[in-house]
Protein 1
Amino acid sequence: MSETSAPVYGTEESLGARLNALRAGVLGANDGIVSVAALLVGVVAAQPPTGVVVTAGVAGIAAGALSMGVGEYVSVSSQRDAERAQLERERGYHDSHPECELDQLARLHEETGMSPETARRAAEEQTAFDPIAAHARAHLGIDPEDLVNPWHAAIASLSAFTAGGLIPLLVALFTPAPFTIPATFLAVLLSLGATGFLSGHLGQAQRRRAVLRNLVGGTLAMAITYGIGSFVGVHV
Amino acid sequence: MARDTHRPDIFAGPDEEAMSSRLNWLRAGVLGANDGIVSIAAMLVGVAAATTELSVIVTAAVAGVVGGALSMGVGEFVSVSAQRDAEEALLERERIWQKARPAWEREQLVRLNMETGMTESTARLAATEQMEKDPIGIHARMHLGVDPDDLTNPWAAGIASILAFTVGGLTPLLTTTLPPAGWRVPLTFILVIVALAITGYVSAVIAKSPPSRAVLRNIAGGAIAMAITYGIGSFVGIHI
C-alpha cells in the first residue's frame, strides 16, 4: 500500500527537534521585524542620508540576529542538558537495580493497555535490545535520538531574524520621505501576518489563528516597547 | 515528592518527574534572564555614562524592564503557541488517519514496537492491546513524540520569560544606582558576569545537570551577546 498521501510530519523522526526549531524561527522572525522596524523608525525620524539608514538597519539586523542566535543556543542547551542528565540517571538506575527497572517498564507498558504477560515479554525484549531508550520513551517522554538541538534552534533564530529584519529595512530604504514611517508600520503588520501564515503552514496547523495571533502579539510587542520608550523618553 | 499530575506514580522513578513540561519553561527562563541581564545592563551603562541623576537611571531601568519583559513574554507566547498548534495538528491528523486507515496504523505501530526491540509476535500482540485502550495516545507517543496529556504550554513559557527577564533586568539597577558615580559602569560589567553565572547555576539545578558547564556557557553566551550588540552599535555609532 503506497502512502503518497502521508503528510510531511507523518512518520518523521526528530519531530521534537523540528518543533523547537519552528518555535525559534517564529520568535526570531517576529523579533526581527518588530525590533528592526522600531530601530529604523527612530533613525528615519531624523531624516538622515540613505547611508545612515542602511548602516543602522544592517547593524541592527547583524547584532540582533547574532545575539538572538546566541541566546537560543544557550537556552536550548539547558533544555538539552536536562534531557541528557535524565538519560544519565536512567543509566545509573539500570546499572544499580536492573530488576526494579524491568518491573517498572512492564508496569508502564500495562498502563498503555498491554496485558501483564505481554507487558512483561515486551519489557524483557526491549531490555535485551536497548533498555535506556525503552525507559526514556516510556516514562521520561524523551527519545534519545531526538533531543532538542541548540544549533538548529540558533540557526533557525538567526536566519529568521535576518529575514524578518530585512523587510522593514527594504521598505524604509525604498519608500520616499513623508511616507517612510507609515509604510514601515504597514510593512510590519503585513510581515507579521505573513510570518504567522508561514508558521501555521510549517506546523500544518490553522493558519488563520496563527496569523491573528502573530499580528496581535507582534503589534503588542512593538507598542509596548515603543510606547514605554517614548513615554519615558528613552530608547528602550 | 512532587509528581507530574498527568501521569500515575509509576511513570516516575525515585526522583524524576516526567520533565518534558518543565523543560520548555526552563528554556524560556534562561533566555529571559540572560536577555534581561544583558540588554538592561547595556542600556543602563549607556544611561549611567550620560548622567548621574538617579531618577533618570531608575526610570530608564523600569521602562526597559517592563518593555523588555512584556515584549519577550509576548514573543514567547506567540512562538510556543506555534509549536503547540503544530503538536495539536499532528494529533488531529492522527485521529483522521486512525479512522481512515486503521489496518495501516496498526501495522505502523507493530513496526514501531519492533524497532524498540520487541519480537514480531510480541509487537503484534502489544499493538492490538494498546490500540484497544488508547490508539491516539499510543501512536502520538510512539511516533510523533507528542504526549497528548503534556503538550507544550505557551502560558508557562510566557510567564517564565517575563519573570526571568524582570529579575535579570533589575540586577544592573543595583550597580548603577547604589555605588558612587565613578564605580557604576565597571561594577555593572562585573555584575553582568556574576548574574550570568548565577543564572547558569540555577538553570543547572533545575535541569539537574552539571553546573560548571551551564555556568561557563551562560557567561560566554551572555558576554558574546553583549559584545556583539555593544560592539556593532559603537562601531556604527548607533544605540541598537
Protein 2
Amino acid sequence: MENILEELKNDLNEIKKEHDLNEIKTKYLGKKGRITELSSQIKDLKDEEKKTFGANLNKLKTEATNLLDTKKEEMMAEILNKKLEEESIDISLPATKIPMGAPNIVEKIVEEVEELLMSMGYDVVDGPEIEKDEYNFEMLNLPKGHPARDAQDTFYIEGEELLLRSQTSPVQIRTMLEGKGEKPIRMICPGKTYRRDDDDATHSHQFMQIEGLLIDKNVSLSDLKGTFDVIAKHLFGEDCKTRFRPSYYPFTEPSVEMDISCHSCKGKGCPICKNTGWITVSGAGMVHPNVLKNCGYDPKQWQGFAFGFGAERLAMLKYGIDDLRVFYANDLRESRNFDRKEAE
Amino acid sequence: MISLEWVKDYIDISDEDLEELAVKITKAGINIEKVITNKINNLVVGQVIECEMHPDSDHLHICKVNIGNETTQIICGADNVRKGLKVIVALPGAILPGDFEIKKSKIRGEESNGMICALYELGLEEKTKEAYDRGIEELPQDAPVGMDALKYLKLDDTLYELDVHKHRNNDCYYHIGFAYEIACILNKKVTLPDAPINEIDDNINNHFSLKVETEKCPFYLAKMVTDVKVGPSPEFIKRRLNAYGMRSINNVVDISNYVMLEYGQPLHFFDKSALGDKILVRDAKEEEKIITLDGIERTLKETDIVITDGTKPVCVAGVMGGENTEVTENTKTILIESAIFDSVSIRNTAAHLDLRSEASIRYGKGLSYEYTEKAIERACHLLEKYAGAKVLTGIVKHDKIDKTPKTTTFKAEEINSLLGITISEEDVKTELNRLDFPFEYKDGLFTVTIPNRRLDIDENVNDIAEEVGRLYGYHNLVSTLPNCPIKKGEYKGDVKYRKLVSKRLRSLGLNETKTYTLTSPEMAKLFKYEDKENAVLPNPMSIDKSVLRTTLIPSLLNVYDYNKKRKAKDILIYEISKTYDKEYNEESKIAILMKGNYIINEWNGTKIKVDFYLIKGIIENILDYMGFKNRYTFQKNTLPELHPGISASIMLDRKQIGVIGKVHPSLNKDDIFVAELSLNALMTKTKPIKFKEASKYPEIIKDMAFIVKKETTSDEVENIIKRAGGRLLTNIHVFDVYTGENVKENEKSIAYSLTFSDQNRTLTEEEVTEVFNNIIKNVEEKIDARLRDK
C-alpha cells in the first residue's frame, strides 16, 4: 500500500497537462484502478485481518483522493494565473476622458458668489438687458444731466428712454417696486451690462456685474461691512483683510469703496495693488433715501444696503488673469481648467 | 492741486506733519493721490566773495562763495555772477529736478564744489528765454548766508494732488473750501481773508446797466474799477499761481485767477472801454459767432449762454471771454463779472466747443453762490492794492437765486442706526461743530442748516450720517451681520431655469461660453429660424457691434473658429443668453454647437463621434430633464445655413421652439452640428414626479421590421404602432435600420422591438399576438409599408 502512494506521488510530479491528471485518476481510483483492485483482495483475508486492511485501504483511498484534488487545484490555479498574466495591461496608458463641461470663467466666480449669498438668504434674480432710462438712471437718483451719467457712456436704443442697461441696479429697482414698500428684500442680481468702451485688456463694452441689495427695518453700514467681510474671505481666503473708504455714488448715502488686502503681496505692496497693499473690489453704501422713496419704501421705516462687484475684476484677481478679453474669447484650453470645485 | 503754504492763510496748520495730515484727509474721504514737497537738500543761500575769470574759458568764472560755516570754490558760467552777490548754491549731494545730482568736479582744470542756480534750474520757474537771459537768481542783500534757500524763498511748499469723487470736486478744489475740509478733520476754525475796499465817489450805475434774459443765469454780479495799472504781480501771487501750475501773466489777469483758486468762483474781467455801457446775458442764437481769447472763432448753438454788449457776444458765458473785450496792457477800466450759470448748459457748451477752460470745468461741476459776492469784493481789494485800481461804489446785480437755506432734522439714533454705531447726542453736536454745520437742538431733535458751500449735501439724514461717519472713521466700524430672519435664498424666475439647463449641459460634457449680445448685421442675418426682426442701435460704436442678436448660433460658430485656429479638435460648447427682437421682446435661448468626438481615447480606438443623433440626444436629455418627456418631436425642416437633409425643427406641444441640424457645407465644411431652443418655452409648469412601480409580471418582447419608403420617417411608423398597440404596449425602440441587399433602392427597413406587459397580470400569448397582428395590419394599411420577411 505504501508503494502505491509513493508511485502516485511520482506520477503526479511528472504530470504535464490537465488531461494527464484524469488518466492518473483512472489508473489508481478507476474501476480497474490499482487501489480499487486492492479491495478485491479483502475477501481472501482472515476475519481479524479484514478490519485492519479495510481501514488501511480507506485511508489510502482518502489520501490518494486528496493528493489528486490538491494537484488539480494547483494546476487550475496555475492556469488561471497564466491567463491573468496574459491579460495584464499597461495601466499608465491614457484614460478614456469622460466629457464634463466647464463653466465660462467669469460664470465660475458668479456661481461662487451666488452659492455663498444664497446660503445667507439672498435670492438670485435677473431683469431685462434692454432697460428704461427711468430704471437704469432716474429712479436711482441720477436725473438727466447728472454729471455721474457721463462716466457711464450708455448705449441708447431708442431716443433717451430705452437703453442697454449700463449697470444691473435697475434689477434692484424692479425688485423694490415688486416689494411695494412692504416686503423686506435680500437679493443679488448678477448679469450682463453694457457701456460704450472699446474692448481692450481693461475695458469691455459688455461685462458682468454682481450687485446685491438688502432692505429691512434695521440695517446698518456696519452690517454691510460684516457682509463684505464674509464675501471677501469666501473668495480670497480667511486671511483676507478688508477696509472701507468713503466714496460717492448717487444711489447710496453714505457710500463706500470696499477694498481687500492684496492677496498677491499680502499687503506689502506690489504692482497688482499699485504698492498700496489694497485692492478696490466693490462700491457700496446705504440705499439713498430718494431711491427708497422712488420705489415706495419709506426711509423712516426701511433701511438697506447695496453693493456691486465687477465679476470680471473678481475673477481677474482670484485667478490671476490680466486681460478682460479672456472671458469672451472662450478659449477651451483655458476654460477647461475651471471644471473643478474650488479649493477649501 | 492744493498748496498748503496757501491754505495756511485760512487755517493754522503750522504744527501739522503734512504727510500725516494727507493720510487723515484721505481716510476721511478726500483722496490725496500724491503729496509733493518742494524740498532740496544741500541748497543754501551763499555770498560770492571773490569772482575772477577762468583762465581757460571766455565765459566761466571762478568764484569763492561763503556758504555760512565755510568758503568754497565754485565755477559759474552765468553772465550776472559778480562779487558781493547773494545767490542760491547747490552743494554736493543736492539733487535737482531731472535727477541731476551735484558732485564735486573739475571744470577745465579748476575745482568746482557745487553750482550757483537759476530758479528754472530748481524747477521753480518755467524755462523761457527771459529766464535764461536773467541768469542766476539774485537774492536780496539781506538774505541770511547759510540758510536753506527754499525756506528763505518760502518755496518749501507742500502740495496735495487730489483725486476727489464727483460730489466733492467743487468745494475741495479751491483753497478756502479745502481749508474747511482740513478744519473738520483737525477740529479747527477757518478764517476768511479780509477784503476792505476804499470805494471812490462814483457809482457803477452811472456807467453801466445789466439785463439778464436767460433762466440759465440766476445770479450775475458786476463791479467796476478804474485807473488800473497793468504790471507784474506781487511775488506771493506769482509764487502761488506757479505752485498751482499757472503762469503769471500780469497783476490783473493773475488776480482774477488767484481769486478763483481761493474761492472757487471764476471771475471774468472785461475791458470796459471796449465793452461799452451795457451787458445783456441771453441764450445764444444758432450759428452765432464769437472769437474767443485764444483767437479761435467759435460757432454757438442756441443752448449756449452768451454775454453780449446788447448786440454782439463778448463772452461765451462760463467758458471763455471774447477777444473783443479782452483786458490788455493798456486797459484802464475793468468790469468784473462774478456769476452763476447752469452747470449742465456749461458742460454741454464746453463739450460741443471742445473747450475745457478753468472756468468751464468749475461751472460744469456746479457752483455754489456762497462766494460769488465775496470773490468780487476780494478781487476789487486786490486790484486796489496791487494794480492801483480805484473801485466804484455800488454793484450791478441780477439775483433770481433761491436762497432758502437747506435744512434737515433728525435724531441722534437715526445716525447710529444707519452707521451701526452708538454715539451720544453730545458726540453728534461735536461732529456738527467740527463740520462747521450750524444747527439747533431741541428735545432730542437736531435741525442742521447745510452750508451753501457743500452742494453735495441734500436734505436728508443719510448725508449727515455720511459726514459723521467719515469723521468717526470707517475703520472704526465693527463688522456685524444684518439681523434678518433666516430664510433660504433661491434662484428666481428665468435664472432658475437657466441654471438648471446650464448645469445639466455641463454635466453632459458641454463647455459654457459667453459671447457678445451686439453683433454685425451680417452675423445677425444667419440662422434666422423665427419670424423676428433685429433691433439696431441708432448710434453704434462700430458696425460689427450694431445689432442685437436674435439667435446665438453665429456667435458659437465664432467661438468654434477661434478654437479651431488654436488646434482644438473636439469642440462641445453651449451658451444660454437673452435675446431681443425689434419690438424688444425678450427671449432666453439655449444654443449648442458640437463637432468632433464626444468621447475619445485615441490609442485604443474608443470613440463616440458627434452626429445628428448625438446632438438630438443632448436636446432630448434636456427636454426630458426639464419635464417634457413625450411632449416634443423633431420635424424635418431646414434653413439656408443648415444641411437640407440633416436638419429639423424642434417642436414642443406642436409649436416650434428651436432648430437642430448640421451646418451647411457652403457655410463651413467641417461636420459641425448646432441646435438652438427657447429657454422661455421651457419655463412652464410640468407635472410632479410620481413613483411608478415596475410590473411584477413577466414582459413579452416581440420584434417586427417594416420595409417603408425612404422618405417615411420612423416617427410616422412609431406613432401608428403606439396607437395600435394600445395600453399593453409599454415600450418601443428601434434596433435596426437597413438599406441594401433585399431592399429596393427607394426603400428602407426599420426594425422595432416592442415590449408588452400589464401591471396586474401575466399576459397570454394569444392576446399579445392579437395586438401584434393588429399593429402590423394598421401600419400596412395606413402607410406604404410591408412587414419584412413575411
